[in-house]
């Protein structure tokens, strides 16, 4: 809820908030930035997010997810959090186009916002929701979604369990025993010019998005967001793919200069993104989504050019770049 009691900035269903959190650590606080999708229809008095507790990878000594653990374990009603206004290009708009929403795991959150908005604002619009998880224990808002499907004849709900538990099979509380993939969509959906909105784990996105394009769904009807780095290839990717580095092609070295840190380092393609390269060399840059969506890592380019593998969701200001999703095209000097 807004601390000052004023109306909150509106948002489009599917957008997210960027939080700057002060995580307690021995001797002080660690500042971390994380993005969370708004998970309910827009309203002026409060925002809702829904956060999955992220455990440490199985068998590792690593700590569990910092932000999600902090929000689950420490943040209490009445605490004040620092939040940037809603942003993101992954959203639906008012139109007659029939919709297919596909949420995998915690990727259901933007779909909940889209669905709730649509059923309130455009109850005549056809909406399908395919919600993919491993088993019934992982479903959130299961009964609320089922109630909505009973109430709204234009809303078709499909819970898709890839590995149902015996209790799921006994209770038959789901519709599909399997993953959300194109063969399933072909079987379920009538032939119509649907717009597809997809958010889910990286493997699901990396297979589903190209498969939809191969099935013949136009790029302009495929909308997606990943909650982390994912390399999703669009059919039109060639149009925005990074051109071959001239310097690399001619065998000369690309030098990345970090003006504020006073470091000059030879670029290695294996470094990943410029953000990862900076971090690996001890240069700390604020980051949030690490996927080109929030603008937190926007950094001024003093000299040189960078390239993006695919057009980022967030439009960087002229003369800047999003370090998390770009690589140097020539030697560059960055204000970092
Ligand atoms: C646009 C967008 C929207 C999002 N919306 C949602 C949402 O609606 N709901 C939601 O729950 N999440 C959402 N996310 C994901 C969210 O932003 C966080 O990434 C997520 O909560 C994990 O953050 P964390 O700080 O808890 O984990 P982190 O501290 O970042 O850790 C992540 C994982 O890495 C492991 N780890 C810790 N240290 C290391 C190390 N040194 N080396 C390797 N691994 C390590 C941790 O154990 C954990 O498994 C969204 C992300 C984006 C980009
Ligand atoms: S960290 Fe979000 S755009 Fe780079």
TrEMBL record:
Residues 252-336 form the 2Fe-2S ferredoxin-type domain. Coiled coil: none annotated. Residues 1-93 form the FAD-binding FR-type domain. It comes from the Bacteria. The keyword Metal-binding applies. One of its GO terms (molecular function) is flavin adenine dinucleotide binding. The keyword Oxidoreductase applies. Pfam families: Fer2, NAD_binding_1. Its cofactor is FAD; [2Fe-2S] cluster. Keywords: 2Fe-2S, FAD, Flavoprotein, Iron, Iron-sulfur, Metal-binding, Oxidoreductase. CDD domains: fer2, flavohem_like_fad_nad_binding. This is 2Fe-2S iron-sulfur cluster binding domain-containing protein. It comes from Candidatus Accumulibacter proximus.
């Amino acid at each position: 809820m807004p601390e000052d009691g004023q109306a909150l900035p509106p948002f489009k269903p599917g957008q997210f908030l960027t939080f700057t959190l002060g995580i307690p650590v021995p001797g002080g606080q660690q500042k971390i930035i994380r993005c969370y999708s708004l998970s309910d229809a827009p309203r002026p008095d409060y925002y809702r997010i829904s956060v999955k507790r992220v455990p440490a990878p199985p068998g590792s000594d690593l700590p569990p997810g910092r932000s999600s653990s902090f929000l689950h374990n420490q943040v209490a009603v009445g605490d004040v959090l620092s939040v940037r206004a809603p942003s993101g290009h992954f959203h639906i708009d008012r139109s007659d186009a029939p919709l297919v929403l596909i949420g995998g795991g915690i990727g259901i959150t933007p779909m909940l916002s889209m669905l709730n908005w649509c059923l309130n604002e455009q109850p005549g619009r056809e909406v399908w929701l395919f919600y993919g998880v491993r088993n019934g224990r992982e479903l959130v808002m299961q009964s609320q979604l089922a109630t909505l499907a009973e109430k709204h004849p234009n809303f078709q709900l499909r819970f898709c369990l890839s590995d149902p538990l015996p209790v799921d099979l006994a209770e038959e509380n789901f519709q599909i025993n399997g993953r959300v993939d194109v063969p399933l969509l072909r079987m379920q959906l009538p032939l119509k010019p649907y717009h597809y909105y997809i958010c889910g784990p990286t493997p699901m996105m990396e297979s589903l998005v190209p498969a939809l394009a191969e099935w013949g769904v136009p790029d302009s009807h495929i909308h997606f967001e990943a909650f982390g780095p994912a390399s999703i290839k669009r059919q039109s990717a060639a149009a925005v793919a990074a051109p071959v580095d001239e310097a690399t092609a001619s065998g000369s070295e690309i030098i990345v200069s970090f003006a504020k840190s006073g470091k000059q380092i030879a670029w290695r393609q294996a470094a990943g993104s410029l953000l990862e390269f900076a971090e690996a060399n001890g240069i700390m840059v604020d980051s949030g989504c690490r996927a080109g969506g929030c603008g937190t890592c926007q950094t001024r380019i003093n000299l040189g050019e960078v390239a993006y593998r695919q057009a980022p969701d967030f439009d960087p200001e002229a003369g800047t770049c999003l370090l998390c999703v770009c690589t140097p095209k020539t030697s560059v000097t960055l204000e970092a």
